[in-house]
What does this fold into?
Amino acid sequence: VAKLCVCDLLVAQCDVNCCCDPDCSAADFSLFTTCSVPIVTGDSHLCSQKAAIYSLDVEANPPERIFKVIDQVNPSVFCIHTTNYKQALSFSSPEMPTSENFDQLLKQFGSASFSAEPDGWNTNTGAQSLSDANETYRYEYGVPIQTVDAFLRLPSPVVSSWCSDANPAGFLVNQATKCIRSVSVEKCGNIQAVSMLFYTNSSILAVPKSSQMVNITVQSIVVQSLNGTRTLLNGSDVLRLPMILDELCINIVLGVSYHITYTDTGEIIEAAASFVLGAINKEALSIQQSFEISFTQVDTKPVPLSGNPGYIVGLPVRAGFRPQGYPFPVEILLAALNTNKYSQLTILQSTSNQDCLAVQGARTPILFGYNMISGCKLRITAAMKCQPLTQTLLDLLKGQSFPEYVASFGNSQAQDVLDWVPITHLHTSEQRIYNTFQSSCQIPVSLEIEVKWTKYGSLVNPQARIVNVTATITTTTLKQLPSGRERTIPVTSSVVFTDISSPAEPGYKAWPTINAKLPFDFFFPFV
It folds into this structure.
């Protein structure tokens, strides 16, 4: 920094008030009134760097320049610790795909993951090794699941529909893929990807970079015939390898479903695989394979997710209620009633006969993003009592046990209390009056649920997050009907989803979650 001078504009001449100009003499400095550039630094993004400080001592006779070099600390939250990636200091034009280099580029970058790190990424290998020795490894969300030889494979289509075995399974990332695999009866015994052994012979590392291994056990085997009929085998402890039998190749893997059990510390403790095996004849040139992976935390009951993390349109809104004695324990127990098997927010289900008393107990889940309306007709007679009728209608509208909380994300866990939004209950009254009872009777006739949600995170991949849920019960007044008369009243349930996302401010690529903004050129030369 002592050699840098941004105000040195004249060649071999002293620039006025440029205190860092090497062409200026002590006599020139004595005539300066100020230093136009009082501080010179290198890269302002560095966390710690040298800074050259220039000032004038006007009390001296004659006035003289004062120069010193200090260590400057960057107070910004975002700073660069070491500029050891030399390729980032200059811009290199990316290689454009052509007919000649396309295959080479596809091989290098075509898989779901690849490494672009240069060989000399780490400049201080000793410090890095010491840091690794003291670090406790664990799996985090999205980290590829490591095995003894590489990583757990979850084949998937890349450029075309053909299977690529280079796709790693990410921790806690539920995936389901389908792809096409080229096969032939003559070579079926030599194709690794259609054998059970290919998916079970490599043990999973319990945590990254550890020597503790978890074997993949076979949970079940289903055999599919040529006409599509499936049969579950009783014994799943024997590997069934592909073999040729009567001009057929049997025991070919058509589907694999992994199930991983993990702890809250990010350690994998169990791994199981379920297989679907099939057969092909000589006419078959390819097969479609399906692959799936799911995760369950140990000592917890698996609950179907509705997104990861944000809600996916068309999947049920997850709900639950608070147990007695809260906050001990602090977990929100999920509702698991007969009418709400998978802890979902539900409304009245419409039927063809539209008789309210006949549809009691029939519920349908509320699907995220779908505005819904359902209803029925209630036939009221003069013999009906007010209080039992009111309770019957409440049970009809709200179900056996209306939940108290809704999950803000599609993957919110029960133990994460702050991830659950309480349902706000409101009551309104209609002006309509039905002459039924001698004394007025307030009965509920509609339930309106409004779900407010917002787009959370990056604009490139926004996640749907529920921020508010309001349930409004509307009542109406009934008065007495003459004996023998009947009246039919409509009872309705409705759900409305409202997007309350704020528009992104100009210049931002995402909604900021902290009160800080990166400099526009922070990631130069990368976008």
